[in-house]
Amino acid sequence: TSKIPLKLPVRQGNKTVLLTPDEISYICASGYYAEIYTENSKYLLRESLNNLEEFFKNHAFFRIHRSTIINVNHINRIDKELVEVGLETVRIAPSKREPFLEFINSL
Fold first, then answer.
1. Considering only CA atoms, which of 40, 93, 87, 46 is closest in space to residue 69?
2. Which of 3, 44, 47, 77 is 20 to 30 A from residue 31's alpha carbon, by CA?
3. pTM score, whole prediction
4. Computed from CA positions of residues 107, 100, 41, 76, in that sequence, does the dihedral angle turn out positive or negative?
5. Can you tell me the distance from the alpha carbon of 89 to that of 49, in angstroms, rounded to the nearest whole number?
């Protein structure tokens, strides 16, 4: 049997967009919502980062800050405290730095 790819349904107006993990660059918390960034778009989803972190746990996603989850396949550069993901630069929480580097090295 072939494995069905994981897709995240996101409402966009009166339609639903199905995002694959590969399309998502990073996710940021915004109040009660999560802002999901792809290469060309931003989507708003009423979901907690904890639930999204669980949803993507078997994929190359890592929570680098209490308000940010990144897709490590979209990383362009890692500095001491910052990660460049796509066109954005996001901060690594000091407590997440070592586990993040271990995660990157384990891939």
1. 93
2. 77
3. 0.91
4. negative
5. 19
Sequence-distant (≥ 6) Cβ neighbours of residue 36 within 8 angstroms: 8, 10, 19, 24, 27, 42, 43, 44, 45
| pLDDT per residue as tens digits for the range 74-93 | 999 999 899 999 889 999 99
Q: Please, how many CA atoms are within 13 Å of residue 44, restricted to the half-sphere of its CB?
A: 5
Query: Taking the mean position of all CA atoms in its chain, how far away is CA 75?
Result: 11
Q: Is the dihedral of CA 12, 10, 28, 31 positive or negative?
A: positive
Contact criterion met (CB below 8 Å) for 29 and 68: yes
DSSP letter for 7, please.
Answer: -
Edge-to-edge strand ranges of the sheet holding 88-91:
75-78, 82-85, 88-91
DSSP string, 72-87: GGGEEEE-SSEEEETT
